[in-house]
């Protein structure tokens, strides 16, 4: 009986860890979605900037003020932003893959633990 209680406690701990991993995955997926949207917006801005002539005035919103900005500088800034966002998305993909592997491993260990508990309970029911 003590063995079953110990296994049940272990099962509860693993289940809590499983729920934490699920929350982490969900949180990372939300962040990834945000970055994906930002990437799309920045790529659209870059396409718009590429359509402009070199002598076209470009303005950047800084606080409540529009400040004149050189087209080449604006292009460089947007490209840097795209590069940063792409790197973050790549990092998040790696993190999500790692979390998913941990989640699968935890799920397998929970299933094995449940089987052990059922086997012990079935053995005691026969006795």
TrEMBL record:
<comment type="similarity">
    <text>Belongs to the prefoldin subunit beta family.</text>
</comment>
<dbReference type="InterPro" id="IPR009053">
    <property type="entry name" value="Prefoldin"/>
</dbReference>
<dbReference type="InterPro" id="IPR002777">
    <property type="entry name" value="PFD_beta-like"/>
</dbReference>
<keyword id="KW-0143">Chaperone</keyword>
<feature type="coiled-coil region">
    <location>
        <begin position="82"/>
        <end position="123"/>
    </location>
</feature>
<feature type="coiled-coil region">
    <location>
        <begin position="4"/>
        <end position="31"/>
    </location>
</feature>
<dbReference type="GO" id="GO:0009409">
    <property type="term" value="P:response to cold"/>
</dbReference>
<keyword id="KW-0175">Coiled coil</keyword>
<dbReference type="GO" id="GO:0006457">
    <property type="term" value="P:protein folding"/>
</dbReference>
<protein>
    <submittedName>
        <fullName>Prefoldin subunit 6</fullName>
    </submittedName>
</protein>
<dbReference type="Pfam" id="PF01920">
    <property type="entry name" value="Prefoldin_2"/>
</dbReference>
